[in-house]
Amino acid sequence: MKTVHLIPLGNRCEVVLDSVKMSGKPIQKAYLIVSREDNCLEDVVNALKNFIEVEVVKVSNDVYGASMELLKIIKRELDEGNEVYINISDAPRELCIASLISAQISRTKIYMAITSNGRVKRVIDLKVPPVKSVGDDKIVLIRALEENGGEVESINGLIEIVEGKINDPRRYMAQRARMSYHLKGLEEDGLIEMKREGKNVRIRLTPLGKAYAIMILK
Fold it and tell me: What mean pLDDT is reported for the chain?
């Protein structure tokens, strides 16, 4: 098992390096996450590359786009049995938010440096509230939507994807009522959006729903 740190970079090289040292956490690999040109990437790479494995990952400035990239890395490392930390000590605002979203969805540990006059005084572990539990029935719907390109044109279409064609009218109406109930809950949680188009209701994963789907897809 390896211990992996995801480190979004700003432009304070010493804060990044000192936060890693003072965290007290082992580290065998660092993903250096960058979304801007004005960062301390070269200095951090040069300081770390002779001691640990380093991989540079460029992500979008968009919060949810960056979250999805972070979650893909986290999912891959967790599937390989590795321990993952996120270090937001020098994260630019959009990457800080993306990191917090990713930590909440994946339940990844996250830490940051407390600084004074540009120097690291101590490092703290952040307690991120767990994301609301999503039941198995809702997970099935999220998976079905993601595997269908993130959206379907109607509830009937979603029923057919999940259950196949249902010929029994009574069974079909019961399934439709049950699915409508779960879809309403997913919409309230911000994971999907539903928009009426003529007689149908188009169902689409939101950016947050797509980020959540990364962690539940096998």
Answer: 93
Instruction: Report how far residue 218's alpha carbon sits from residue 33's, in angstroms, rounded to the nearest whole number.
Output: 24
Strand partners, 53: 29
**In the listed set 73, 95, 126, which residue is the last one of a domain according to the structure?**
126
State the pLDDT at residue 218: 62
| Burial state string for 45-80 with b = 16 or more CB within 10 A and e = fewer than 16 | eebbeeebebeebebeeebbbbbbbbbebbbebbee
Q: Which long-range contacts (CB under 8 A, 24 or more apart) does 73-81 make?
A: 73/6, 73/31, 74/6, 74/102, 74/106, 74/108, 74/215, 75/106, 75/214, 75/215, 77/2, 77/4, 78/106, 80/2, 81/1
Q: What is the 3-state secondary structure (H, E, C) of 22-86?
A: HCCCCCCEEEEEECCCCCCHHHHHHHHCCCCEEEEEECCCCHHHHHHHHHHHHHHHHHCCCEEEE
For residue range 95-114, list pLDDT tens digits in order. Answer: 999 999 999 999 999 999 99
Residue 198 lies in a domain: yes
Q: How far is CA 4 from CA 17, 26, 32, 54, 86, in A?
A: 15, 8, 11, 10, 9
Considering the domain architecture, whether residues 93 and 165 belong to the same structural domain is answered as no
Domain count, the chain: 2
Does 131 fall in a domain?
no
d(CA 216, CA 143): 8
At residue 77, φ and ψ (nearest 5 deg) are -70, -40
Spans in the chain with pLDDT lower than 50:
none
